[in-house]
């Protein structure tokens, strides 16, 4: 390059160094051009990174819209007016409220198989259609029996949605942000609860025959947006790989991963996990048989996933949310308007603190948040029991009841609320993930239904204070469960998380391979 420079500048005056004057300026110009190219490439990379983050965020938001329906289906305020309009009994009230959770397990069970057959994306669409049908029937219901038919359809739709959203988001999210993004369904459940509380308060002044119908009709809106979202969001790349649509999976990964060089690495991990090109994988047992007779590693996954889902509900969160007006009534608050205003405070608290979890889950980790959550809930539930036992119908007791309920939902939202869905979407192998996560969702919905359908009866049998003492004891047990059985999954790819549940020897082998790879990358 130097000789070319001399020839090109041969007629120029020579400097003391033997190089022509002006040559240095030329090389400076070449360096400047290289710098400009580097800057241009860096700006393009930054723009690609921003676009990728926005796209993945949009996918997570759209996929979470079904979760609004679960939160909105709480009916804690609407049930007050349904009682007055349709003259339903206390038992019918428990059945109406609790049936949503019980029936949703049918949707969750069917959702695993359905999402493996038609894809994660279209399963979300099916969930929205079923819910819309049920919501319309409930809005127009002239009797309790018709209302129940609509409620059952809503439950099935919610079961599909609540099972598939975390799985889909976990499968499209980059490792570094997977925890935060997979928590989005829990945010939208809380937004649904808050929307329900606000609409209950807003429409409570209308006639008894009309107000609860409008409250239920508003719940149709989120599922309408889901229909538009299906034309924007991509299919899960991991599901596409299971269908042998590798090029389509690569195209999706290029839109959801910032670094192009990482796409092939991630695709290779997915192919390996799915068993593409490995004859051994195709000789394995069917999914349902593998789940019924699991290996030791899979058994640990199932115990962790199923257990954390059950603990999320048997600590009484749905009783606190569904029946907050009844709890505050026992504490001493009188009048529907004041009761509904207090429930709005619960909804705002629950929604606000889920944002704390979103900020911390990929920084602090899953397990520390679970400790904070379960210990805090244990204390708040115990305080609520004491308040309802000793301080009810006093100004201080009313304040303590509201503070304890808000504290309970705040600690729930910070940890076990979102983290349980994150964990069950992360820990299972690719070919089992949808149906294993569906089993976890079934456990969650069954426990939710049992609590919702028995809370008022338990309150009559052992007092409401005694019921919350039991919830507090169960919450204390959940602390021990987290300590003994829940691993930390922060910062690991879905494929790497499988290694956490393998035997100690296999974990050590995986660790050596990972260190070798890291050393090779550093050398290069």
From TrEMBL:
UniProt family annotation: Belongs to the major facilitator superfamily. Phosphate:H(+) symporter (TC 2.A.1.9) family. Belongs to the major facilitator superfamily. Sugar transporter (TC 2.A.1.1) family.
Localization: Membrane
Keyword Coiled coil tagged: no
One Pfam family matching this protein: Sugar_tr
Keywords: Membrane, Sugar transport, Symport, Transmembrane, Transmembrane helix, Transport
SUPFAM superfamilies, A to Z: MFS general substrate transporter (SSF103473)
GO cellular component, one term: membrane
Record field: transmembrane: 55-83, 95-112, 124-142, 148-169, 181-202, 214-233, 339-361, 368-391, 397-424, 436-456, 462-486
Gene3D superfamilies associated with the record: MFS general substrate transporter like domains
Top-level taxon: Eukaryota
Membrane topology: Multi-pass membrane protein
UniProt xrefs under InterPro entries: MFS_dom, MFS_sugar_transport-like, MFS_trans_sf, Myo-inositol_Transporter, Sugar/inositol_transpt, Sugar_transporter_CS
PANTHER family: PROTON MYO-INOSITOL COTRANSPORTER, SUGAR TRANSPORTER
NCBIfam families: SP (TIGR00879)
Single GO MF descriptor: symporter activity
Residue span(s) of domain Major facilitator superfamily (MFS) profile: 52-490
Protein name per UniProt: Major facilitator superfamily (MFS) profile domain-containing protein
Species for this entry: Camellia sinensis var. sinensis (China tea)
């Amino acid at each position: 390059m130097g000789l070319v420079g001399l020839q090109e500048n041969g007629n120029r005056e020579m400097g003391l160094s033997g190089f022509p004057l002006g040559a240095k300026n030329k090389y400076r110009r070449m360096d400047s051009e290289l710098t400009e190219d580097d800057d241009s490439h860096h700006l393009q990379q930054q723009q690609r990174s921003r676009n990728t983050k926005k796209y993945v965020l949009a996918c997570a938001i759209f996929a979470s819209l079904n979760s609004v329906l679960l939160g909105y289906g709480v009916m804690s305020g609407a049930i007050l007016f349904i009682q007055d309009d349709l003259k339903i009994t206390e038992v019918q009230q428990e059945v109406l409220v609790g049936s949503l959770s019980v029936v949703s397990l049918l949707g969750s069970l069917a959702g695993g198989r359905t999402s493996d057959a038609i894809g994660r994306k279209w399963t979300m669409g099916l969930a929205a259609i079923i819910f819309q049908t049920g919501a319309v029937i409930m809005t127009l219901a002239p009797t309790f029996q018709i209302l129940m038919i609509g409620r059952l359809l809503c439950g099935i739709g919610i079961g599909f949605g609540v099972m598939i959203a975390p799985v889909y988001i976990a499968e499209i999210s980059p490792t570094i942000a997977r925890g935060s993004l997979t928590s989005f369904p829990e945010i939208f459940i809380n937004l649904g609860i808050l929307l329900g509380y606000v609409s209950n308060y807003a429409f409570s002044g209308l006639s008894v025959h009309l107000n609860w119908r409008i409250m239920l009709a508003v719940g149709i809106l989120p599922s309408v947006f889901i229909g538009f979202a299906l034309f924007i969001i991509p299919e899960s790349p991991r599901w596409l790989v299971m269908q042998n649509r590798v090029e389509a999976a690569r195209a999706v990964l290029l839109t959801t991963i910032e670094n192009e060089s990482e796409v092939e690495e991630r695709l290779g991990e997915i192919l390996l996990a799915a068993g593409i090109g490995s004859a051994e994988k195709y000789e394995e047992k069917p999914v349902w048989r593998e789940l019924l007779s699991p290996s030791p590693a899979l058994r640990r996954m199932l115990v962790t996933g199923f257990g954390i889902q059950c603990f999320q509900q048997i600590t009484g969160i749905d009783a606190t949310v569904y029946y907050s007006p009844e709890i505050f009534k026992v504490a001493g608050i009188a009048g529907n308007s004041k009761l509904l205003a207090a429930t709005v405070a619960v909804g705002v608290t629950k929604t606000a603190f889920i944002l704390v979890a979103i900020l911390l889950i990929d920084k602090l980790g899953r397990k520390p948040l679970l400790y904070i959550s379960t210990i805090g809930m244990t204390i708040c539930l115990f305080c609520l029991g004491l308040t309802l036992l000793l301080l009810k119908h006093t100004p201080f007791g009313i304040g303590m009841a509201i503070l304890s309920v808000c504290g309970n939902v705040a600690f729930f939202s910070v940890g076990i609320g979102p983290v349980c869905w994150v964990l069950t979407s992360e820990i299972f192998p690719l070919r089992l993930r949808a149906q294993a996560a569906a089993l976890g969702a079934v456990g969650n919905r069954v426990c939710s239904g049992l609590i919702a359908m028995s809370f008022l009866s338990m309150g009559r049998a052992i007092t409401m204070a005694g019921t919350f003492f039991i919830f507090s004891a169960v919450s204390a047990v959940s602390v021990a469960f987290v300590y003994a059985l829940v691993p930390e999954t922060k910062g690991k790819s879905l494929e790497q998380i499988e290694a956490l549940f393998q035997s100690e020897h296999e974990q050590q082998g995986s660790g050596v391979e990972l260190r070798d790879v890291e050393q090779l990358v550093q050398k290069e």
